[in-house]
């Protein structure tokens, strides 16, 4: 028997990672310095759309300290188009995307030239010496106008701005359902563009060994493994001569789930010059050059009966791809395609997504990636429907959600949710929130026509996470798989190395994987070290995004550790001269049933295996093990979020008065890390509701181009969060875990906007476009009054 | 971001600083706490050839009394202004408004003189010294001169200081017995005010005898709402204050930016003036 004693899983261990991070003993990519290091800077287009008539770098070359300068054309040879690995339809339009623009710039910030200098200051100064002649072309900014006949084109050679149209129809025919519905409701929502703000900006260092043609690429990336494969393809450097290292990485939120032109440029320049090179973006450069998130128009139609029973949902999306297709630009909105029906039962679902090219920075995955948009649409619409029907919004949800005894349940969009208990999470949230009391206060304020109104917003969400099943990814035309790799090594001294293919950038994998391995192996938590983020040290992996790391990578660690125990058991049985079946394994000790003095610790077994003096016949001298896990289903965290806001009707200012969330993420490995993930997620979701928006002017310039204009909230702007959990274990994996990286972001945005609209509904307000700035709220009130 | 190249000098006396500025002419810039100049340099919005760092010049910081006024050294940090007992006792409006500036890190580096010399109408303190009828003392090659606050703010990011003048002191008349409030409206804690209202109110016999209202970010310079001030005189209840506050935006020319439209700013000025005055007058 193998008895896994859970001493570590479930324990709020302080993170192993933190000591070196908070004492500054970090290796950010920008901290890396090697002899002879050169620095490059990129000249970027000041225009949204223009033909490049001429690029002349000669004046820059004459400046002291400048080593080289290249135009896009100079570097084009030897660099392929940047990759997009998610061609979502057969007839998708896939434009060419050179790492540096050659003939045309297609968004403000598109790079046109590079200077290489002995230091960063010299490089930055030399940019002004580069001469570029642009012939302006019309910007393409409006998603609907872009699809009209005769619209100016982002990629003239493609003849259209339509990238693709991807349909999904399940259940009954929506039109038929609409015919028999007693109520239908149409809404249009705008998901504004967001700019991811990782604490650490992007940075790249390349160190070449010219003689052997070997390259090491350091990058502030979420995906060292994927990056290696694709950089080999883009640059032609053989994959086995390219090592990719993601050192300490300070956040990503999807923005570093990307393969960037700067990474290819760094390799190309290092190859040309045979010298190590570095590039680090500034924050405002990143606002132009690092991909954006969201950016879509959602047309939603819901059909129901008067008693609130949902009949069908129609979703029509226009999604802003930006100027080019980056790694998974077209697929990102489709990660939400299956989530628009949320936790509700219905008979018809009709989904269409159209991708549109514009002359803006490309979009791609941003925390939640498709699912926040989906959750927003259904949860906003549920509140609207409740208002239309005169039902309490919680009651409307209760009448439609999947009941806990109905799991596993195949939802209308075709996914089978393995487990969940929406009743339990909601009941707990309502109690913590003191829902009835707040409703009473709301009525009271409404009756008094108080200047400050109270609103309550509800969001009951689920999400598909743990991006894994390779076969489902195949069906969605995603090029790669979704497995994850782990190996567990018992060292001769009894210490443990866990090698993971996940690539943490703030999540705390070193701590959590240590907890998982320590329990299975029965070794102290402190004795486990986790190796990651280096393709030489952790050669196999699919990296970190989409709340996949625990359900795929963490579970792979669990399985690999179990294999170690199985191998160790063979050695222990041999040493104890007992049958394997007679051995018990508890807390790291093998003992013979009935004679407890006959025992070997797993550390002793590790040393015996190292010496290999007395192993079972035919056994390889190792108890180390590897596991590659490719789960056959997603996981489905869910939860109920409730938000109370006070809206000052004179100024339009919104203040979040209380926020309660009860998340069900299944079994928890480390509650402190979960708490942190939820808090950060809530902050980002609330930021979309209230603060953040990438704003472009009519010429296509990004005018929210610095943190003074793009408002990222801080702790001072956020309320105390009341967070709690219910625990309905996932049935799809041995630990019952589901993932928590995106839950807060997915659930919170509609809770806040629902609350604001709820506060102002008595004044006649029906919707407010995000972010719900004070001015927009004030305008909505003024318009409703007149 | 990477600033352009510049020469740097760090004088140790006011005279040295003034000489350096005179030598540098139009291309010299004073570096005080660096909270405004450094971002401008890093974003390549300013290209001085010479930066004169007055951070090591002794005698430019601290608060002292001089008869009916407080004298605050130009290099006194926001943090020290907030904590100074003399400021709290005699110039509560300044302490209260300074406490809303940016975030603790900025308040520990940024200085009163620096934020006034920067003359940003979105800064909180220009409107406050304007409402307090403060005077600004500058030293130049020809000696010292005193500039009333209402003459100091000339245009957007432009003060009355000559290129070779160094702001050394801010003289703030004691406002003992005046009620005060700074009402700042902003979207996130560390962002600039969309609109701010600095109110000082002297009451007599339950009525407002005299009121001063300074407006942040309602034009190219900080402004006084004179029409509103006049209308407030004699106001005895909340309704009268509300009526007077309707005039708060008169004559202002607020900007359009990503935070707000001029129309909304004007609306806010009226609402916030009413609130600030009611609080200052203890009528709220």
Automatic annotation (TrEMBL), chain A:
Q: Which coenzyme or cofactor does it need?
A: Mo-molybdopterin cytosine dinucleotide
Q: Which GO terms describe its molecular function?
A: iron ion binding; oxidoreductase activity
Q: Can you give the residue ranges of the Aldehyde oxidase/xanthine dehydrogenase a/b hammerhead domain?
A: 23-138
Keywords (A to Z) from UniProt: Molybdenum, Oxidoreductase
> Matching Pfam families, A to Z?
Ald_Xan_dh_C (PF01315), MoCoBD_1 (PF02738), MoCoBD_2 (PF20256)
Query: Could you tell me the superkingdom of the organism this chain comes from?
Result: Bacteria
Q: Which InterPro entries match?
A: Ald_Oxase/Xan_DH_a/b, Ald_Oxase/Xan_DH_a/b_sf, Ald_Oxase/xanthine_DH-like, AldOxase/xan_DH_MoCoBD1, AldOxase/xan_DH_MoCoBD2, AldOxase/xan_DH_Mopterin-bd_sf
Protein's UniProt name = Molybdopterin-dependent oxidoreductase
Question: In the record, what lineage is assigned to the organism producing the protein?
Answer: Bacteria, Bacillati, Actinomycetota, Actinomycetes, Kitasatosporales
TrEMBL record, chain B:
A Gene Ontology molecular function term for this protein is: oxidoreductase activity
A Pfam family this chain is assigned to: FAD_binding_5
Task: Reply yes or no: does the keyword Transmembrane apply.
Answer: no
Q: Which UniProt keywords apply?
A: FAD, Flavoprotein, Oxidoreductase
Matching SUPFAM superfamilies: CO dehydrogenase flavoprotein C-terminal domain-like (SSF55447), FAD-binding/transporter-associated domain-like (SSF56176)
Q: Name the SMART domains for this protein.
A: CO_deh_flav_C (SM01092)
Residue ranges spanning the membrane: these are none
Q: What is this protein called?
A: Xanthine dehydrogenase family protein subunit M
Q: What is the scientific name of the source organism?
A: Streptomyces cupreus
